[in-house]
Structures are given as structure tokens and as C-alpha cells.
Specification:
heterodimer; A: 318 residues; alpha/beta; Rossmann fold; seven-stranded mixed β-sheet; four-stranded antiparallel β-sheet; 22% strand; B: 326 residues; six-stranded mixed β-sheet; five-stranded antiparallel β-sheet
């Protein structure tokens, strides 16, 4: 087994909100107890509904924000805010919306060279340009696109540019925050193929954040299912999909539409809403919506069990 | 008689750089209790064709059609006042972006009661009762409290449900849902789709579902119409469409689905949808089609017969070879 590039242990991120003259501050537990490892050449998918802490996780791993507690190791080096500057070049991010994440006033060349200008000060301008043009070719665009502006490209091409920008500093880890959800179906497969090819060529580790389970099934090696800021189930993708052990995973899988009209599906209906992360239910966060919940679930929060396919539930399936 | 019948609908937009044809000779027929899904990529004219029918396009649009009738009423010649009587009552639409489609200045309760006040002969108390009932129906918890809330105080999913409640408020006979679940999480999406198909079953409402999600299509639709660059390229009932697509574009779209993948590299469609300036001669899909030849690039294909899903292609797929020779 390869040495992991990223080891996260018990990452937690809380935000303080409110706190006017008459009210006290409240804590939003956006992310709690996230532990995982990223291997080179492997993809870890993070799935969950909105508000489950996927994007907070991405922000903590890319060192945009410090974790409230917990440790993050990148290449055996513990991450702390004073080391961010040097470590950030090995973890890069691709955002969801390629229309919002590229500066419309910058040429593609400038967008790609900016990370080099900042982080590789000793590099000559000529080398920078050569590297940017090579990168364009690598992500399936043409070298002469260097002088164009983002508005001249379609959504799929923009997402390629965003990937190219993320790769300029030769990172080891790419955080992909819903990379294809803003793209059309026929373009989506082009971008997914590009990501697969780049991973094989460069041995990148992907942290793939998505809510689309059919894309995740295709891309991921391992999966983390999150609910209200906490991982509720993790394991190899085939195991988790073939036999989900947490009731929430099961409900999520059953709610995902399958593009096959001949399949008769039995859907698990979830009652109620995702509770607000400000007042997370005591005990298991899923218990108010769970059909298996007992007194125990409502009183004490279950923790992830041991093994390869781990689940945080008192009454796991299967 | 069909509830909605559109023949040869075209929509042109006058843009600064000339005329742009967003919808090109499109036919739609919907009967009572039908669920028709219109699928296609962005820019394929799905929403524009429906907006044209509702009379919601700006003045820059030129709409031409041989026939456009709803329940025997000719939508091409009705006056604005008559149209307002139909729209919102017999024919309603759920828009894609709930956040920008609701009025931020009024409470959601006011907005939902407004459509009841305009269209239904109800007293104030009845309207209030009906609004609560609708909120319960779409799964909004604590409906009475939520009626007094402004759109910005609720999440996207909640606002989408308000939109849906508003659309079904007057028990429409035709509901057009433009990407009704794109902004929602899968568990909520499942609830909403169930609600819409339930209404269709119980009240015989016809439903037009505009979407790009093949999973949603497979699970809800009865018939599917595939659009490409403003043209309808194929229409079939849902099962045969998924098992034997006749147009190469449909086949390529289905092959690009990650769940149908057989290897790590997905079959993908090269290129992008043609825009205003690179509209090809002949078949619009020919530059991206793996089977295109000179004939495709020169001559625009006619629609194939009904058995072949009216595929707009010279060389439809899923045909036995001997039949082709005839």
C-alpha cells in the first residue's frame, strides 16, 4: 500500500454566529470528527446533502480555513497556519461553477501563470509561459488558447481551464468541489474522462465532493457519507453501494434516480427536514428521521465502528 | 382531442448580431394525464418553447406556429386578458430558479393567495384554508407559520415547494415543470417527484417535465422528447427510448451516463452544441456524430416514421438491416 498524502484525524470546524446586543453567540457545528486518508492515485468521494459539511471539509483540507480542532497531515507534515504558504501548493482546488471561478478580465495565460508568479519567483517569464501552454495541451485545449479570455469558452472548456490552473504547481492532491454538476451531460463525461486520465498520468489523489451518486460510483475508490457535519459511513465504494449499513446511506441510495425505466424501485421515504446545524439533535443526528431509531439513538451519539467498512449506527443494516 | 397541440413552432430572437433561431419547427402533443419529459442540453430550446406557449417571452422574440392550441383555444390569437385567465389556472408553470421567481417584497402566503384570489371564486377564509392545505400537500412543515414568511427567510428547497404549491393552487390541467428539482437534494427531489406524479394520477393533470437528468426521466416520464439545438430529434415512450434509441444523439447521451459505463473512460460526445454562428448545414448534430457522412453534412434529414421515434436522422439506429435496404 502506498504512503498516504493526506491524513486527517478528527477534523472539526465550528463557526460562531449571531451574538447581537441581546443574544448570545451560537455555534454552528459545520464539520465534526472527520477522519480519512488520501492515497496517491486514488479517489475519495464525499457525499451528502446540502448543509452536511462537504464544502467546509474542502475548505479545511485546502487550508483556506484552519480546523477548530483535529489534525491534518500532508506528506507527514502537520499542518498549522504558519506552514500554510508552503503546503498550499500541494493541495489545489477546482470549484463547482466554472463561470464564477475564472476572472473574466484575465487572459487564460495570466490565469494559469498567476500561481507560478506567486509561488515560483525564480522562474523566468519564458518558462512560465511554456509551462502554461503545455498545461493547456495536457487538459485537452490548444496551446494558442493562451491569449483568449474566459468568455470565449464553453462551460466544459472553462472547467478544463480551472483544472489546468489547479495543476500548475504540480500538486499531489486535487480537491474537486462538485466539478461536473454545473455541466451538461455530454460535457460532463468529457471532463470526467479528463480527470481519470490526469489521475493516471500524474498519480494525483482526489477528494471528490459531489451529491450525484452515479458520478461518485463511477469515479471513487472510497466514499465518506456525511450527515449534518459528521461522517456516518465510510468504506470502499463497492461495499457501501452494494450494501449500505447506515439507514441514511440506504435512504440516499434509494432516493437517487436510476436511468433505467425497467427497474422497479422501492423508495425509502424520509420524514422531515435536515435539522439546522445550530441545534444538532442530541444523540444520533439522523435519529429524528430514522425509522429504526430507539431511545439509545436519541440519548447517545454513535461513533464509527472499526474495520474497512465503518458505520456510526447502533442498529446497522446487513 | 389533445389537451395541448403544437405544430411547427419556431421561435426567433432578434439579437444585436442578427436573428437567432432558438426553437426550430417543434411539435408537441400532450393529452390529459400524460407525463411528457423534454430532455436536452442547455441551449436546446426546452424552456423557450414552453415560455413561448405561455406568452412569457420578451418582445425580441418572434413566434411562429402552424397550430398552438390548449383545450381548443388558439393560443396564437387570444388577447392578453384572455390569456391571463388561462395561465396560472388551467396551465401553470414551475420555474427553475425559486429564489429569483418569487417576489422578495411579499410574504409567500400573500403570493400563493394572490393566484387564488385572481382565479378562483373563493372567500378570504377559504383562500387561507386552501393555502394551508397546499403547503401541507407539498410537505412544508408548520404551514400556518410559514405563510407569513418572506422568500429570503427560507431555503432553496422550501422556496421551490412554495413555487410548486403556487403552481398547483388552482388545480391546473397542464403543469409545466422546468427543472423542478435541480436545486434540491436527492431525498427532497424524490418527495417532489412523487407529489407531482401523485397529482397527475389523482386529478388527471397533464405534466410536462423539462429536465436534463436522465434518472428523473426514467423514473417519472411516460413519453420522452429529445431536443438538440432547438430541434426535436426523437420522441418515444420511455422504455423503448432507453432500450433502443433511434437517433445517434440520444444513443450518445445515454452512453455517456456514468451508470452505464463499462470502463473507467466514458464514451463522450466530442465538441459542443452549435451556437448562433457555427450552425452547420444539413443535420445539426453531424459535426459531433460518429456516423455522419457527406449526405448528413449537406442535406437536412426528414423525420423518420412513427415506429422509428420520428428520429430526425438519415441513418436511424435500431433498424434491422433488411428493412433499411427497402
Amino acid at each position: 500500500m502506498n504512503k498516504p498524502v493526506v491524513v486527517a484525524h478528527d477534523l472539526t470546524r465550528h463557526y460562531e454566529v449571531g451574538g447581537g446586543i441581546f443574544s448570545s453567540t451560537q455555534t454552528v457545528e459545520a464539520l465534526s470528527g472527520a477522519s480519512f486518508t488520501l492515497q496517491p492515485g486514488k479517489t475519495l468521494a464525499v457525499v451528502g446533502e446540502s448543509g452536511c459539511g462537504k464544502s467546509t471539509l474542502a475548505r479545511v483540507v485546502t487550508m483556506i480555513e484552519p480546523p477548530t480542532s483535529g489534525t491534518l497531515m500532508i506528506d507527514d507534515e502537520a499542518v498549522s497556519p504558519d506552514k500554510w504558504a508552503s503546503l498550499r501548493s500541494s493541495v489545489q482546488i477546482v470549484f463547482q461553477d466554472p463561470y464564477g471561478s475564472l476572472n473574466p478580465r484575465q487572459r487564460i495565460g495570466d490565469i494559469l501563470m498567476e500561481p507560478l508568479v506567486i509561488n515560483r519567483k525564480d522562474m523566468s517569464a519564458k518558462d512560465r509561459e511554456a509551462q502554461a501552454r503545455d498545461m493547456l495541451a495536457m487538459v485537452g485545449l490548444r496551446r494558442e488558447h493562451f491569449d483568449r479570455y474566459p468568455h470565449m469558452f464553453s462551460g466544459g472548456q472553462r472547467q478544463r481551464i480551472a483544472v489546468a490552473r489547479a495543476l500548475m504547481l504540480n500538486p499531489r492532491v486535487l480537491v474537486l468541489d462538485e466539478p461536473v454538476s454545473a455541466l451538461d451531460l455530454s460535457i460532463q463525461s468529457q471532463v470526467l474522462n479528463l480527470l481519470v486520465e490526469l489521475q493516471e498520468k500524474l498519480g494525483l489523489a482526489y477528494l471528490f465532493i459531489s451529491h450525484d451518486l452515479s458520478v461518485v460510483k463511477h469515479m471513487a475508490d472510497d466514499i465518506v457519507v456525511m450527515y449534518l457535519g459528521r461522517p456516518v459511513e465510510t468504506g470502499p465504494i463497492e461495499d457501501v453501494v452494494a450494501n449500505p449499513r447506515h439507514p441514511y446511506t440506504k435512504a440516499l441510495l434509494s432516493a437517487t434516480p436510476i436511468a433505467d425505466p425497467t427497474i422497479e424501485k422501492k423508495r425509502i421515504k424520509l420524514e422531515g427536514e435536515l435539522p439546522s446545524p445550530i441545534n444538532v439533535p442530541k444523540g444520533c443526528a439522523f435519529s429524528p428521521r430514522c425509522w429504526k431509531a430507539t431511545e439509545e439513538c436519541r440519548a447517545k451519539r454513535p461513533v464509527l465502528d472499526e474495520g474497512r467498512h465503518r458505520v456510526a449506527c447502533y442498529h446497522p443494516e446487513g | 382531442m389533445a389537451l395541448l397541440r403544437i405544430r411547427n413552432l419556431s421561435v426567433d430572437f432578434a439579437t444585436a448580431s442578427g436573428k437567432f433561431r432558438a426553437v426550430d419547427s417543434m411539435d408537441v402533443t400532450v393529452d390529459r394525464g400524460d407525463i411528457l419529459a423534454i430532455v436536452g442540453e442547455s441551449g436546446s430550446g426546452k424552456s423557450v418553447s414552453m415560455l413561448a406557449m405561455m406568452g412569457l417571452l420578451p418582445w425580441t422574440a418572434t413566434i411562429t406556429a402552424d397550430e398552438m392550441s390548449f383545450d381548443g383555444i388558439d393560443l396564437r390569437s387570444v388577447t392578453a386578458a384572455q390569456r391571463r385567465k388561462i395561465i396560472g389556472r388551467d396551465m401553470a408553470m414551475i420555474f427553475q430558479e425559486p429564489m429569483s421567481s418569487l417576489n422578495p417584497c411579499f410574504t409567500v402566503g400573500f403570493q400563493i393567495r394572490e393566484s387564488l384570489r385572481k382565479h378562483m371564486n373563493m372567500s378570504r377564509r377559504e383562500r387561507h384554508q386552501r393555502a394551508i392545505e397546499l403547503f401541507e400537500q407539498v410537505g412544508i412543515p408548520e404551514p400556518e407559520k410559514r405563510l407569513g414568511v418572506f422568500p429570503h427567510q427560507m431555503s432553496g428547497g422550501m422556496n421551490q415547494r412554495v413555487m410548486i404549491a403556487m403552481a398547483i393552487a388552482c388545480r391546473p390541467r397542464l403543469l409545466i415543470a422546468d427543472e423542478p428539482t435541480t436545486a434540491l437534494d436527492v431525498t427532497i427531489q424524490a418527495q417532489i417527484l412523487e407529489l407531482l406524479t401523485g397529482l397527475q394520477r389523482d386529478t388527471g393533470m397533464a405534466l410536462i417535465l423539462i429536465t436534463h437528468d436522465m434518472g428523473v426521466v426514467a423514473e417519472t416520464a411516460q413519453r420522452v422528447s429529445v431536443q438538440y439545438a432547438g430541434q426535436k430529434v426523437e420522441e418515444q415512450p420511455v422504455r423503448p427510448l432507453f432500450s433502443t434509441p433511434h437517433h445517434p444523439y440520444t444513443a450518445a447521451l445515454l452512453a455517456a451516463l456514468p451508470e452505464r459505463a463499462t470502463s473507467k473512460i466514458l464514451p463522450s460526445i466530442p465538441g459542443v452544441v452549435p451556437g448562433q454562428f457555427d450552425r452547420p448545414k444539413g443535420c445539426l448534430f453531424s459535426p459531433r456524430c460518429s456516423k455522419a457522412d457527406d449526405r448528413c453534412r449537406e442535406i437536412e434529414p426528414e423525420n423518420q416514421p412513427e415506429e422509428l421515434g420520428r428520429a430526425k436522422c438519415h441513418y436511424p439506429l435500431g433498424v434491422n438491416e433488411p428493412e433499411m435496404a427497402q
